[in-house]
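Backbone geometry:

***
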Amino acid sequence: MRRSRFRLLLNLLLLIFSTATAANDSLYTRFSQELDTRILQTRGNYSVSDSTLHLQSSAYSKITLRQLPGFEPQWKRDLGLSLTSTRFLSRNFDLLFELEGSNFQDQEAPERVQKGGVSLHPYDLRPLTDGSRLVTGQNSKITRGVLRGGVSYNRSTTLRSTMLVGGAYDEELKGSGSGPSMRGDFKLRPIDDQNIQFGGNGYINLYDDRRYHDLTLDNSIVRDFGDATDLFEASWRNRRSDIYLGLEGNIVSRVHDELSLRNRLSTPLSEDMNGVYDLDFRRSNVSYRGVGPGESRENDLVHRLAWIYAPSIWQTMLQYNFAVEDRDYGGTLTLGRRQELELITSRNSDKDSLTVKLGTEKRRYDSPDSLETNDRDRLVHHAELVGGRWLTPWVYTAVEISVILDHLVYIKQERSADNHWNRVIALRPIVQWFPADGWNNTASFEVLANYSVYDFESMDARSGIRSRVFRRWSAADTLTLPLGGRVQLSLSGRYDLEERGRIIWDDFVQDLSDKARVGFAATHLEYIFLSRLLLKIGYRYQKRVEESFEQSDIVLQQNQTDRTYIKRGPSLRVQTLFNRSWRLLVDGDFQTIDDNQRESTETLNTVYVTLVYQW
């Protein structure tokens, strides 16, 4: 039986490829190496068409080799193939064939023990057996294949439908099965009303006593009321997957059912103002048949009102959202309320741009369980300003400002000690300079402050303070300049100052615990050989110095260097430019790491080799 299936598949592939007359597709291959992992990826697309046939095929593969110290090599393989063939029979009918296959395999890697060696684990003093050796990874195997054939019916723009039947095969470590398979879809538009559309698609695969399916139905209706327009959309999706659970291979059915409804009414309120009202509803249920974690339910109801005012280059939007979130996860009930008010104003012209966002969001989570202590309210205020202006034809300035005030309050007394504010303030000015053609200099500065302040704290001991502060000051600069011909040089640098500590917000006193200085510099030289080959050589250097503060009897605080981290090394890029049909890209970073918290210098080499071929 398997031999006859293989012959049928082979004959189908030979028939399809023998009819190829023209092709325009690609082959993508990439090899990457980083630390202890090597990955080889390949993707291919192939298609042919003529007056009677259209063929579309794709394939992918991903092979991963992971070599951890002290373990045997761990292999992982992921393969996939899909083929679709359409034979045009008449104006309305087409003959369809499709093939899908996938294979995933993960191999467990045992601990490597040299012949005559002694295990390093104290508990393993008994004779070494396979069952007592440590392992990394997990043995897993899934092989699936589907072969279907059918017809497609097309009637202008009013009706399109497809129906295919065939067989499916599934093999896993805990069992295998085969059975019938069906797939179909349709899209209907009544002749008398082009604003109404119905559609659906789905598949069903049976593997003996297991079943996989994914079914979807959707429709949309558009109606006009004078200048107003109403859009109604509805969709329903049902998915089922029968999976093996436990060591004994018991079968558990997971069924996910989801219904979504959406209505949008938009109407002009004046010549420059529009109003929009959205009403969204979503219901999602996940249930298990057999042994499982239990049933879960999610219900969402969202109202949204928006006013949009857009005269000339200015645009202003004011919106209000109200949402109800009902959650039930295995008997754990949560009822949420969310309200949001937001104002967005923007201006765009040839010389300047400005965007201002102001918003307030309130969230509330309640549970009907009197023993639940996680009931909480959350209030978030946020403000953002992004603006830019051309001072001269060669100087552009911009500024970004953001403020977030986040207050979390627990309702029950048992959790009131966790009530806290989180305040985030950021300021980032930017200056860009274009002194000549090909020259570009960008400088930016950033100040970031993050304060986490608890409403209630134990002030008896300084160790009981949970309020924290994090601040960072950054300066970055990037310069790109041509050196003549096809040579270009780029220089970039960045310097950060960071500090962390505890804070007594009421007294506005801080107790720093550590700080860090981070410096980064990089340079790259880019050269194009005769418009055929791009060569980019660079060097990167990064240094991070971390210091901590400790109490002393003589000095209130003194700092000491805890860690010095240095990463440096060259980088290389080679890219072909002479042929559009195929391209080769090689990227490599070769870096050494010196860390005073480690005994020896480490190397971090990353290599990417990418080949793209189009024909």
